[in-house]
User: Fold these one by one.
Assistant:
Number 1:
Amino acid sequence: MDPTELLPLLLFPLLWVAILVVIALVGGWSLLARDHRAVARPAEVQRFVSGRFGLLMNYNHCLVVAAADEGLFLGVLLPFRPGHPDLLVPWSEVRVLEERAGLVRPWTHLELGPSHVRVWLAGAVGVDAARRARR
């Protein structure tokens, strides 16, 4: 087998990781990870949640989210983890900016942490996060 035939097999994982790291940097996930890395995942999480970080970075059906007692937990599904450590933002650093009733599901706009990263979360978990953040 010619070694150049293996090149795409070697380059794809490197490109995949590089793209995910850039997405984390541009969207603000990396900013939150500086101060809010989670030690463990909560027992009950919602998988396949959609959301948006910043203005451009869409996370369609790949977020893992929980409105836990300690704060808002955010993670991503396994194939998307490079550059995306699990996060736990305490409720004292979660600010509700807006809630919208979408055509299919509600959307909640939040501002997280001292770096003021803006996040949209879809569905009931976003509504639950807004309720807990307002306490």
Number 2:
Amino acid sequence: MTQSIPIPRYDVAAQTRTTRLPADLIEAAEAHGRREHRSAAKQIEHWARFGQYFEGLSTAARVRIQRVVAGEVAVEQLDEDERQVANAQITARISAAANESSFADRLAASGVTTVGLDDRGRMVRRHPDGSTTHL
């Protein structure tokens, strides 16, 4: 599920644009933002600017972090600050993948019938052909 939140754009008029973000990201931004005395939008902006800054770096530390995130080297090769950045990137990738993939869809593609909840919260059997049966 996604929610819309205005994300500030930096130009002379300080306009904003509305974009859709995963609900879990907005909820995390609201929680973390309260601790930092920021709105959810400002917290997401803060995270985005940090990511933008980090991606602009072309240092040996960045290369080490990227190699750890890619699974090419052990996390023990990073110092504590680098580990935090690597863990944050890994967590973000896991969260994005979890929001984009449906285990039920993968099972259906393999011919497996699953049971779950429909949009109204009713229990249904989902058949590989895409049809559903209420239970």
Number 3:
Amino acid sequence: MPGWLQQLIVPLASAAGGGLLTALAVMWRYGHALIEGMRAIMRGELHRIHRETVEKGLPVSMDVAQETDDIYKAYHDGLHGNGLGTKLWREIMDSHNGPPPENKEEP
């Protein structure tokens, strides 16, 4: 390889490698923030459903039970949320008076 080509390639490769690492760090930071934000939104939805049904002593309809189960699956399985979301989900599912949704058992 000619010397002039090597002098051109080495700095370009170094810059590209550094740029790649920077891009990965930025994606990690903002990706993590987006996951945390989605987890908070889904936990908030579980809170809302819990407040509108369980805390008022109202029965949970099949539609609300299915919606709760869908939110919880995304919250728990997709975003690895747990703890309070699981407690809210369980109390909502326990307040459902009809046939169980597909995934009434905790994942």
